[in-house]
Amino acid sequence: MTGSRIPERMLVATAGRRIRNQEGLYVAVAGLLAAALVIYLSTGVNFFKPTNILDIARGFSMLSIAAIGQTVVIIGGGLDLSVAEVISTSNVFAATFMAGNNALFLPVTALSLAFGALVGAFNGVLVTKRNVPAFVATLGSSIVLRGARLMWTQGLPQGHIPANLNALGVGATFGIPNLFYVFLACAVILWVVLTRTGYGRRLYAVGTNPSVATLSGVRTDRTIIQSYVICGVSAAFVGVLLGGYTGMSDQKIGEGYELNSIAVAVLGGAAIGGGQGSVGGTVLGAVIILVLTNLSLLMGFPIQSQMVIKGLVIILALALNARRTVKA
Amino acid sequence: MKRFIRLALVLGLLAGVSLAVFAGGGGEKAGPKTSGIVIGFSNAGMGDSWRQFLVANFNAEVAKHPEIKQTYITNADEKPEKQLADIDDLLVKKVDALIVYPTVADAIIPAIEKVYAKGIPVIVFGGNIATDKLTCSVEEDLLAFGRAQAKWLAEELKGKGKIVMLSGIAGNTTAEDRYAGAMEVFKQYPGIQILDHQYTDWSPPKAKTIMEAMIQAFPQIDGIWADSGLESWPALQALKEAGRPMVPSTGDQLNGYTKFLVANKLRGYAYPMTTQLSAEAVRQALKAVEGQKVEKKVFIAITGYGPDKIQQLTRPDLSDWWWIGDDQMPAQFLPKL
C-alpha cells in the first residue's frame, strides 16, 4: 500500500495550501519580533536577552511536541482531547517507577511511551471501528484515565524524578537547552513521516476525503488509528519531559495541554475537519503563542489582558486562515 | 367496579405515603443524644492527597469519640448532582448529623437547607456558603492566611525589599481572599516594593515559566509571596537554575515545598490550608447532636510554620504530596503509602 495510488491532484492541492498558510505565519512571527524590538527600544523590556530566549525554548519544546502529535491527528480528520490526561498519567507513572533511579530512566520512559501508544490505539479504534465521534471518544478516555490514575495513586503520587531526567529537563548542552534538542529530533522525525513517507501521503488523503482515499486503496481505519497512536506517544513523552522540567510528579501537570495543543496546531494552519496541517506551521504557531505569553509577562500585563490578547490572536489567525482556504 | 378499584388504590397509596411521612417525621424530632450517634459525611471528592488527609482527620477525630456508633462517608467525584443524591442516601440511613464538604456551594444550598429544616444538624466546611439555614459553617480565614504569609515575609525582609507575588486562579475566592489579605499587610510596609503579581492556576510548570520571565524582567528579587507551595517550590527552582540568590518565600504545608526548603537550607513560611477542618466539623456536629450551643460560624485556629517548625515537621522520606503538620494522628488513620 503506497501513496502512489492517491490522485496526484489531491496531493498537489493540499501541499499548495500548506505553503500559503505558512506565509501568513512567517509574517505574524516577523510582526511579533518587530513588536518586541519596538517594545525593547521604547521601554527597555528586553525580550531578546539570550537567557530569556533559552527559557522560552524549554516551554516551547514541550508544547511543540504535544502540538505536533495533535497536528497529526487533526490532519487525519480527528481531534484528541485526552492529551492532558495522557501527559499527567505518564508523568506520575514516570516518577513512580523511576523512583529517583537514573538507571530506570530509559526503560520507564519506553514503558510510558508504550502506554501513550496504547491509549492512542484505544482512541483510534473507538473512532474508526466503533464510529464514536473523536471529540466524545477522546473525552471519554480522558475521564477514564483520570479516574484510573486517581484510583491507582489514591491522590498521593509516589516516587521521584531521577537526576538524569531532571538534567534533561533543565540542563543545557553547548548553551542550548537539552529539551530543544529533544524537540528538534521529534519535529524532524514527524516532518519526515508526514512529508516523505507513504504514511504521510495517506494521512493527508484520508483527512481530505476519506471516501476518495478508501476508493484509492488506502486503509483508512489503520491510517487514522496510527495518527492517534503518534499523538498518544507524543503526549506521553511530554509527560516524562515535564517531570524533568519541574522535578516533580503532579496529578494535574498536563492540564491545559489539550486545548493549547489544539490552539497551536490550528494557529499553525491545521484545519479541524482534516487534510491540512504541517509540522512547520505548528512549530510557528507555538512560537507565536509563547512569544506572546513571554512578552505579556515581561511587560507585567495582568493575566486577564494576557488571555484577551492570546484569544484575539487565535481568532484572528483562524479568520484569516478560513478566508485563505475559501479562496484556495 | 373499576372506579371502586381505582379509588381503593388511590386511598391505599395515600395511606402509605402518610405513614411513610409520619414515620420519617418521628425520627427527625428526636431530642439530644449522647450515645449511639450516627454521622454522615458527604465529601466533594477524593481526587487529591489533600482530600485524603481530610478523610484521615475525620476518621481520627471520630475514633476519639466512643459516643459515635457509626459513620458513613460518600464521595461525590466533584459532581454537585451526585452530592445531592449522596445527601439523600445519607438521610435514608438516618444520620443524626450531616457533615458536608461542598462540591459547588451554590448548587447544594437547597439540599443543606432541606436537611436543616428537618431538624438534623448540618455542618458545612471548606468554603463560604451563602445561607444561614445550617447549623454551623467551619471555615479557615483566608484573609488571615494571606495576612500571616505577608507579615512573615515583610518581617523577614525587615520591611524593605522587592518581591514578586504568585496566586492561584484569577477570580477564585480562595486565591483572591489570600491575595487581598496579603495586600492589606504589604500596604503597611512602604519599604516593600511589589514588582509583579501573576496567577499560576496552581500549576507548577506554569508557575515556573512565569517565575522565569520575572527573573528576566527584574534584576533583583528579594522575596516570593506565593499563596501555595505549588508556586513557591517551582519558583525557587527557577531562581536556583538561573543562578540567582535564593530568597525567603511563603507557601502552604505541602511536603514537596518544605522538603525543597530544608534540602537547600532556605528560609520559608508555610501557612497550612488545614485538613483538620473535617475534625473540627466532627466536634461541632457532636455538640449539636448532644444539644449544646453551636455558633453559626466557627473559624479554625491556625498557626503558621516558620523555618524551625518546617525543619521539624517536614517528612523527607515521604511523598511530595504529603501535608506536613496534618499528619499528627495514629498511623492507622494516615493515607496509605
What does this structure look like?
The complex is a heterodimer of chains A (328) and B (337). With 328 residues, chain A is an all-alpha fold. In chain A, strands 1-2 form a two-stranded antiparallel ribbon. In chain A, α2 crosses α11 and α11 crosses α12. The longest helix of chain A is centred in the N-terminal third of the chain and has 36 residues. Chain B is α/β, with parallel strands linked by helices. Chain B is built from 11 helices and 11 strands. In chain B, strands 2-1-3-4-5-11 form a 6-stranded parallel β-sheet, with helices on both faces. In chain B, strands 7-6-8 form a 3-stranded parallel β-sheet, sandwiched between helices. In chain B, α2 packs parallel to α10 and α7 crosses α8. The longest helix of chain B is centred in the first third of the chain and has 27 residues. The radius of gyration of chain B is 24 Å and the shape is elongated. Chains A and B meet through α2, α10 and α12 of A and α2, β7, α7 and α8 of B.
Quickly list its features.
heterodimer, A: 328 residues, mainly alpha, two-stranded antiparallel ribbon, 13 helices, 2 strands, 76% helix, B: 337 residues, alpha/beta, six-stranded parallel sheet, three-stranded parallel sheet, 16% strand, elongated
Question: What would you say about this model in short?
Answer:
The complex is a heterodimer of chains A (328) and B (337). Chain A is an all-alpha fold and 328 residues long. In chain A, 76% of the residues lie in helices and 1% in strands.
